[in-house]
């Protein structure tokens, strides 16, 4: 018998928000609801608020990496296998968390290559722009070969 019967997490809303972030490459699409779920996942550091979280994960490669290395996404089933969780929170709540963890991991895997490519290209572009500025400052011109 569970001590508490927590309401199931709003899986669909959370996954919709995270997919919007990854699909659009825009951390500002992260909702408060999704933030409240993500920052409590294992492996995530504490942030002051949603805005601090967004600031920390401007480069979505870090968000995807933290998701994929979270123990909650690596072994989500432990919330069902370990009876303590069901006793503390209720079986329905635990199952909804497991489904949400799995959904988040699937999205991170689905968008991994795309996120990696976009942010690597952005980083390269920024580095080339910085090199151009230094070159011009010293009387040189960078020409693409």
Quick one: how many beta strands? 0
Shape: elongated
Distance between the ends? 70 Å
Number of helices: 8
Strand content: under 5%
Mind telling me the C-alpha Rg? 20 Å
Whole-number mean pLDDT: 92
Structural class: mainly alpha
What can you tell me about this protein's structure?
With 145 residues, the chain is mainly alpha-helical. The protein has one domain. Helix content is 68%, strand content 0%. It is built from eight helices and no strands. Helix 1 runs parallel beside helix 8. The protein is elongated. The protein starts with 10 loop residues before the first helix and ends in an 8-residue tail after the last helix.
Notable traits:
single chain; 145 residues; mainly alpha; elongated
Quick recap:
The chain is mainly α and 145 residues long. It is built from eight helices and no strands.
What topology emerges from the helices and strands here?
Blueprint: H1 11-24, H2 32-38, H3 50-56, H4 60-68, H5 71-74, H6 78-81, H7 83-89, H8 91-137
